[in-house]
Amino acid sequence: MKKTLKQTLFKKIKEHRPRTKRLLEEYGDVVVDQVTISQIIGGMRGLKSLVTDISYLDPEEGIRYRGFTLEEVIEGLPKPKGADMPYVEGLFYLLLTGDFPNQEEVMQVVDEFSKRRIVPRYVYEVIDSFPCCSHPMTIFSTAILTLSRESVFNRQYHAGLNKKEYWDATYEDSLNLLAKLPEIASYIYNKLYRQGPRIQSNPNLDMGANFAHMMGVAKPYDDVSRLHFIIHSDHESGNVSAHTGHLVASSLSDIYLSISAMINGLAGPLHGLANQEVLRWLHEVMDKMDNRIPTKEEMTQFVWDTLNSGQVIPGFGHAVLRKTDPRYMLQREFSLKHLPEDPIFKYADMLYQVVPDILMEHGKAKNPWPNVDAQSGVIQWHYGVTEYDFYTVLFGIGRSIGICANVIWDRALGYPLERPKSITTDMLEKIAGIKKMVETEEKTTL
Ligand code: CMX
Q: Taking the model in full, what pTM does it have?
């Protein structure tokens, strides 16, 4: 009998624990980085102060999951029959263990997800009770929060759980939650935008196909969903959603509280919400152009107008990346293959041609190249999911997979409560020697 994912994971955890223990006990004083005032005031950019083995973001290369590029991940994971994109459940296996699952191993996870997918009725009642015009991310976050009462971790913790077992209960909570996210998200979508009867899930389908089925969108939307969830799952630890998930979980809040919190971080326009902002912005341009494809000069003018009015160009720039996001490139390749003639794709592609040069001339953004959000909405739009307010929910399903994997490992390795130290502006000025200079100046004037 093949080992289950949980058994394989436990073996990896036991192998890894001594590495963390040795680093802490024997090398705890080794200096990794130093911190400057601009990093303290400037959102801790580049400060090496978190650890994760699930993914690593190289500024010049882009994301690697467990050491593998996205192309290698897509190539190496098992795929459902006839699909171009792999099982999302297989990605979860890879993120947790660092190993590519074989067909039998991935089917075990597909089966686990299928068994845990049923959402309690009270969650639907909470969703139904939202006032109209609520943003789908607010509803999604609340629905997840509501599930906290199901937490295995909470139950076991209050009954007296050994620290070494925290990861196990968190693993159970994570699977229980991840399996339900497509059901919750598609329910929100249908409620907000379709008003038709809910499409029941099909327990025989994998996560991507089941999501497409519940959204009521035909093939290849199953592959679109798989690709979307896989490429959005993780982007190392420092981005707002990943960091929030880790931070909240570090106080031993359960996975539902942690994932709900990370969804709230993702809902900001400088982070995940940028994918809806790209479509909103493109539609403003389309309206002004009466749906005609603008010339390069016209598009250039729109971009400058946005910059000159003090707004950012959504879908461009990145806090870490310094080249075109490989997640953008993968989606662009998909679009070139499946929707090259779509007008929205043509608009987005024109942005790719004009924005980087403009941002360079503008001279502020450290990275003028497109990020993941510049292209994801274009694909959704093409397949009929045109309600762009919903796009960040899709990002949220994917990102939850990575955060759950991270939190399980955080608990397995006993990472403590996160608690950096803050200081005051007075103290920073003192460190910079500014106060002394001001006092001297005052004395001179007197
Ligand atoms: N358009 C206009 N100005 C931009 C810009 C853009 N796309 N990207 C960066 N800048 C500006 C910043 O606002 C900043 O201006 P100020 O000095 O006036 O504050 C300056 O350039 C320097 O910023 P940076 O160091 O290059 O970038 P940050 O690390 O501060 O911010 C990010 C990164 C993503 C928030 C920023 O590039 C941005 O706002 N992009 C547009 C929104 C977006 O696409 N977000 C999604 C990112 C991916 C994701 O998380 O989903």
A: 0.96
